[in-house]
Design a protein that fits this description.
binds adenosine-5'-triphosphate, 3 domains, binds magnesium ion, 369 residues, Rossmann fold, 12 strands, Heat Shock Protein 90
Length: 369
């Protein structure tokens, strides 16, 4: 025995040929101290045992031609069944291309029976289980980072909503009070023309301030999202964008009913907001369209401009924080974000969100189109 090991190795061998199983068993015993080896002879037996015992195996060694299943279909089913257990494919086919294919189907390794030695089998078992362990640890760590980012994002949105309410309620009310006082003053003025002109100018200033406060509060937390839902909020965003920039802009939406929670709504809104800000700052565009399609349980949102396009170097620059934030927000809501850009056709930012199984909210929305 060359490599005595203290780790407990539980190896499930899915092999119907007694000679091949005996060989594999001998090889394992040559390298591993007191392994637990369980043999099953069909896919069905493997399925039953994996469902019954759960993920207790270090690896699964899989013969590619079983009586009840073989080849690609077998690998596909077995990898799905094993989830975190590495699957090492053992086969007599001397087809290299098929080996590569088995890896792309999720197998951890591919060994030809003709070339098998106790060392190559042992190495493969060690590498595969170690790789799976590292990948699982990375996935766990990514989950933790994502959950932290999620909490941070929620806290940020809550804080924005709080500041928005404060600004709206405090400043908004004071300014409305000021406007009423000025109106009373105007009424009680006894024909003093100069004073009347001054009061009118002050009322106009207060009106501008009320509008600014409303706008700032809205940008911090679009009340329309809460009151009327995402589409109305995006509609408002597009109208404001056109008003501010003079760039011809419109919203095209094929739905008045979205399958959606609050979290996706605010994140989608922020993605659209950043995309539009980028268009103002960088695109030099003359027209912008936001397209919303809700078909077959998928929500597609495209922000399309006819501007100068994003350079591919910039697109992959990890310091492009705006683009990165868009991707991160998409990740947070399990959506996909694709960016297609060229200097001829401008930029398309596409967000794809699976809406199947999510909470159904009846939209109370209005459309421009
Ligand atoms: N629609 C667009 N058209 C042309 N270029 C764009 C567009 N959107 C982004 N870019 C390019 O991609 C770069 C990165 O965008 P990103 O939003 O990450 O950063 P930023 O807008 O420069 O800064 P920030 O968003 O952090 O304030 C921009 O600097 C710009 O060169
Ligand atoms: Mg930006």
């Amino acid at each position: 025995m060359m490599n005595a090991s203290k780790t407990e190795y539980r190896i499930l061998v899915v092999e119907d040929n007694p000679g091949d199983f005996a060989l594999v068993e001998d090889f394992i015993f040559e390298q591993i101290e007191s392994p637990i080896i369980i043999q099953v002879k069909t896919f069905k037996e493997a399925e039953e045992i994996l469902i019954k015992t759960g993920p207790v195996y270090t690896v699964v060694l899989l013969d590619l031609s079983l009586p009840d299943r073989a080849g690609e279909a077998l690998i596909y089913e077995m990898v799905k069944l094993c989830r975190n257990i590495p699957v090492i494919v053992l086969t007599g086919y001397t087809d290299f291309a098929f080996g590569v294919k088995s890896l792309s189907l999720g197998a951890s390794d591919y060994l030809l029976k003709e070339d098998l030695t106790s060392i190559s089998l042992y190495k493969s078992i060690i590498y595969s289980s170690e790789r799976k362990r590292i990948i699982s640890a990375l996935e766990e760590s990514e989950k933790r980072v994502r959950s932290f980012a999620n909490q941070l994002n929620n806290a940020l949105e809550e804080e924005r909503a709080r500041i928005s309410r404060e600004i709206h309620d405090e400043f908004g009310q004071h300014l409305s009070g000021l406007k009423m006082s000025l109106s009373s003053l105007k009424k009680s003025n006894n024909g003093n023309h100069e004073l009347e002109t001054l009061i009118s100018a002050l009322v106009a200033d207060v009106n501008i301030s009320i509008e600014s406060v409303r706008q700032i509060a809205n940008e911090l937390r679009p009340v329309l999202i809460d009151k009327l839902g995402l589409i109305a909020a995006i509609e408002w965003l597009v109208a404001e964008f056109e008003k501010k920039t003079g760039i011809s802009s419109y919203l095209e939406a094929d739905t008045d009913q979205l399958v959606m929670d609050e979290m996706p709504e605010i994140n989608i809104f922020r993605i659209c907001q950043e995309a539009l800000t980028n268009i103002t700052k960088h695109a030099n565009a003359t027209s912008v369209k936001i397209q919303i399609k809700n078909t077959d349980g998928q929500l597609f949102i495209k922000i399309i401009d006819n501007g100068s396009g994003i350079k591919s170097k910039t697109l992959h620059n990890p310091l492009s924080m705006g683009l990165l934030n868009m991707k991160e927000r998409a990740n947070l809501i399990d959506a996909k974000l694709n960016i297609n850009s060229s200097s001829q056709n401008g930029t398309i930012i596409e967000l794809i969100l699976d809406t199947n199984g999510k909470k159904n909210i009846n939209s109370r929305r209005s459309f421009r189109n």
